[in-house]
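Risk register update: the risk that structure generation would not scale has been downgraded. Supporting records follow, first protein first.
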Amino acid sequence: MTRTGRLCLLALEDGTVFSGTSFGGTGTRPGEVVFNTSMSGYQEVITDPSYCGQIVTMTNPLIGNYGVAAEDVESGHPQVFGFVIKELARRHSNFRAIMSLDEWLAQHNVIGIEGIDTRALTRKLRVDGAMRGVITTEIQDPAEAVRLAQASPSMAGADFVKDVCPTQESLWTEGFTTEFNTARKLVRPGRTVVAIDCGMKRNILRHLVDIGARVRVVPPTVSPAEILDRDTGGVFVSNGPGDPAAVHYAIDLLKDIVGKTPIFGICLGHQLLALAMGAKSFKLRFGHRGANQPVKNLGTQRVEITAQNHGFAIDTVSLSRVGGEPTHINLNDQTLEGFRHRDEPLFAVQYHPEASPGPHDASYLFDCFDQMMLTHRAPTAEDMAAAQAALQKRV
């Protein structure tokens, strides 16, 4: 049974209002309303720092059927500003579960709404684009809720990285602890990867440990000297929330280290590296969020099914002018999904090769990072093909 069961409104800036029943927390919270097409993995979605500032709609109609497991979080607490579903499972069944989704969201005071037509909401967002919205258990006047949504800040120009990044350096040592990952367990004595944490998912860190690295996690506000010490074998730039162009301090940091050490970026890290090189970013209409996005590797001509979560993208033409070479494209809309630097040991992808949730098709890219730290050159199509073949053997 739900804990609250009170009236809950989801209002959009265009005047649309959905009325449903609340679960989890209570209150009023504005955010950008987006949708995610994953059929499972709701716990990883909710705890992904890249969703900070957003009210997430799940397109799968039944959510919560396997409860909440302590091992499946991607950060220390839920990051979404609201959670929208068609139906909440009244019972969960999972030997790993420690509580229900309803209880967990109530514990962290994250507002959930169920009982609305999530298909209609998703169709609206696909046509009109992601919108500012508000989710509330306190406001019962739809017009007032719409006014609050219209007065909320836009995601364009928003820096949410400062809200989710760490304030101090730390060491990460945890590798994979379940049988669900194709572990490498490489041994690279003396190699340190400096991971710039802009809102990093924990499964990325596990992959870095798995390729044999000692992982230093640093905030994006550190100085170049704190990154480029004698032990640094390579730098990783993480995912994160908000508008990449607004994260000026991270862009300035990357400008100072590009070309001085091997660098690999994922999602926001992909965008920040491109901006540091001099490329331009733009906001997608409704973004790519889900665990079934098809991406083509331009070098190998292979298609990967990928996990994605981003609302901005990089302009390919501007990237090509500053030394970037596209390596991957999205087959749905042809937007850029990966690039390498023509001259420097640097490459990045817009999607999430670490999965959680999602397929593991692209986890070979961590092996490419490992090789780049050995060779000090960006991976070629041949390097990626070899890494893909090695992944298939492990699977």
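Supporting record for the second protein:
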Amino acid sequence: KRLGRTTIIEFSKELMKKEEELKISQLALKKKEEQLVINEKDFTRKVSGFNGDQQKVLGCIDASDKKQSKRVEHMVEVISGMKPVSAAQVLSVQDADISVKILGLLEPKKVSKIFNLMDKEISARLQKQYMTMKK
């Protein structure tokens, strides 16, 4: 009786309004959760796809490295069968990195003879690269 009929009606309306707002909030939260699950699945799919692509790239790099290693080994066989003068000429015009890899796999006596027969500038550059490779 104290509150009065109007106050109870207003209180009821306010409760119903709050209840409706709560339902709307719960629906919005449910939609966000569903979207989050969808995003998580999408992210997981993309990560697994990326990992697959990464493995393919790494496989290609490994295959390329193996092929290059085989070519260098072949060149080591060829160069080791040459006379030092011819080997010096061939290695002088090669890419420096490849020449250093080849020299790194040759016998030390042969390498010293080859360095002695090369142009001084080329020999110095290759020796510097050769020494840093050995570290």
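The chain has a mean pLDDT of 89. On this basis the risk owner (M.S.) recommends closing the item.
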